[in-house]
Design goal:
The protein is an alpha/beta fold and 459 residues long. It folds into three domains: 64 residues, Winged helix-like DNA-binding domain superfamily/Winged helix DNA-binding domain (Arc Repressor Mutant, subunit A, Orthogonal Bundle), CATH 1.10.10; 120 residues, Aspartate Aminotransferase, domain 1 (Alpha-Beta Complex); 240 residues, Type I PLP-dependent aspartate aminotransferase-like (Major domain) (Aspartate Aminotransferase, domain 2, 3-Layer(aba) Sandwich). Helices cover 40% and strands 13% of the residues. The chain has 14 helices and 15 strands. A hairpin with a 3-residue loop joins strand 1 and strand 2. Helix 4 packs across helix 11. Pfam families: Aminotran_1_2, GntR. In the C-terminal section; belongs to the class-I pyridoxal-phosphate-dependent aminotransferase family. Keywords: DNA-binding, Pyridoxal phosphate, Transcription, Transcription regulation. This is Transcriptional regulator.
């Protein structure tokens, strides 16, 4: 056996025996060559062999690491069903005392980004001058709108700063868009399952819903068109990239057709794109709004998921609904807008996103590996290419009972019934993967898998 393969097999043995764990950093090539008394070319061949077999991963400017064991579970099943009119109910709210890492979809803000934000706020305060003596402009500060337009323009989604309206987060943008283009009693097409926060807003506005089935590459657009043709629905509301909770991203063809349907039937489609920039790879997909030619796609986004939920700052590109939309805008604190404009213009936001994508790409396989090893056989887990959540399907699980047991145990999770107005997804749950795979997360996952194991065990 060649020397490099002999060394690779030794590494694999150490990993299988637990002497090396997923995520452990390995020696540099030169250090490894000196340690083993081999040439640099042999060291390179050894690491290349390990990488090709999936035991090692190279991270740019970081080094070499033991790769997470790859999950071998299947993804969730998306059973077909016929879409019908329904009335959303306000989902159950978890107690405020439950705030563990698995519940709410969110990131932990790393120190480098926190420090850069502090610098941006100091610069913004010095530059604000007399603007702090005035109420904020309803449409938002030009500096922030220009920063956002430039940022998304670099991603291939060109827009004019005057097309944007700054608001209090993505949910505020979605709610305002619904108020502009619907009336109480109207029906709104949504994906199934659908983020529970959107269901809550729809219920608050006395709107009815039509749940459109999920597919592996998006949603059942044939059923959506059927309802558009019949006039059953007066608007659409969809998360199109890294959907919450199912993790699906609409294909380019699906996004293009969604925009075409909105224009053909002249029905507004609100695009909740809060996860757009949280891919688990360097490539950022384009939204459905990119394909919109008539202004019928109302594009909503936010920094709440990519940066911090505490800022409650988002934006909307209302398209042909711009005038009534901006008339409802009240303005966002000026200093907050100027600071975040500085954060974007300085390049700190782009650096933060690169680090965040890398972190999520490293977190996800660790979560998946743990779940595959500790959940009952037959469980299905989504394997999204972006976003902050995993969708779990456990055959025979009573999700309501799991929710009650988890609450008694102080465990923060979201069960499948929260994401629908139907009886579907009772055997499903959603967990957040935005936090590093460290002791607090592992402790909660252990407790969750223990509860599921007990509830799934034969009587």
């Amino acid at each position: 056996m060649a020397k490099y393969r002999e060394l690779a097999q030794k590494f694999i043995g150490d990993i299988r025996a637990g002497r090396l764990a997923a995520g452990d950093r390995l020696l540099s090539l030169r250090q490894f060559a000196r340690q083993q008394g081999v040439s640099l070319s042999t060291a390179v061949s050894c690491y290349a062999e390990l990488e090709s077999l999936g035991w090692l991963e190279a991270r740019p400017k970081a080094g070499f690491f033991v790769a997470p064991r790859r999950a071998t579970t299947q993804g969730p099943e998306w059973a077909p069903f016929e879409s019908r009119l329904a009335t959303p109910v306000v989902p159950y709210r978890h107690p405020a005392t439950l705030s563990g890492p698995l519940g709410t979809s969110r990131l932990s803000l790393e120190e480098a980004s926190r420090a850069a934000l502090e610098r941006s706020f100091r610069r913004a305060l010095r530059a604000a001058g007399e603007r702090l003596d005035r109420y904020p402009a309803p449409q938002g500060e030009a500096a922030l709108r220009e920063a956002l337009a430039g940022h998304f323009g670099q991603c291939g989604f060109a827009m004019d700063a005057d097309e944007l309206v700054i608001g209090h987060g993505c949910m505020d943008a979605v709610k305002t868009a619904l108020e502009v283009c619907t009336r109480p009693g109207d029906a709104v097409a949504i994906s199934s399952p659908c983020y529970n926060g959107l269901l809550e807003v729809l219920a608050q506005l006395s709107l009815r819903i039509v749940e459109i089935p999920s597919l592996d590459d998006g949603i059942d657009l044939a059923q959506l068109e059927h309802h558009l043709r019949l006039g059953t629905v007066q608007a659409g509301l969809f998360c199109t990239t890294h959907m919450n909770p199912q993790g699906i991203t609409m294909s380019v063809a699906q996004k293009r057709r969604l925009a075409q349907l909105a224009n053909r039937y002249r029905v507004p489609v609100i695009e909740d794109d809060v996860y757009l920039e949280l891919a688990h790879h360097p490539h950022v997909p384009l939204p459905a709004a990119y394909h919109d030619e008539g202004g019928f796609v109302i594009w909503c986004g936010s920094l709440s998921k990519t940066l911090s939920p505490s800022y409650r700052l988002g934006w909307c590109r209302p398209g042909r609904y711009f005038r009534p939309y901006v008339q409802r805008a009240l303005g966002v604190p000026t200093l907050m807008q100027l600071a975040l404009a500085d954060f974007i213009d300085s390049g700190a936001y782009a650096r933060h996103l690169r680090r965040t994508r890398d972190r999520l790409a490293r977190h996800k396989p660790l979560y998946l590996d743990y779940l595959v090893r500790h959940l009952p056989e037959g469980c299905r887990i989504s394997q999204p290419d972006g976003g902050l959540v995993l969708w779990l399907q456990v055959p025979g699980l009573d999700g309501d009972a799991l929710g009650r047991a988890a609450e008694r145990a102080g465990l923060d999770i979201r069960t499948g019934a929260l994401f629908t107005a139907s009886d579907r997804y009772r055997d499903c749950l959603r967990i957040n993967i935005g936090f590093p795979f460290e002791e607090p997360v592992q402790r909660e996952l252990q407790a969750l898998c223990g509860l599921i194991g007990k509830m799934s065990a034969p009587a």
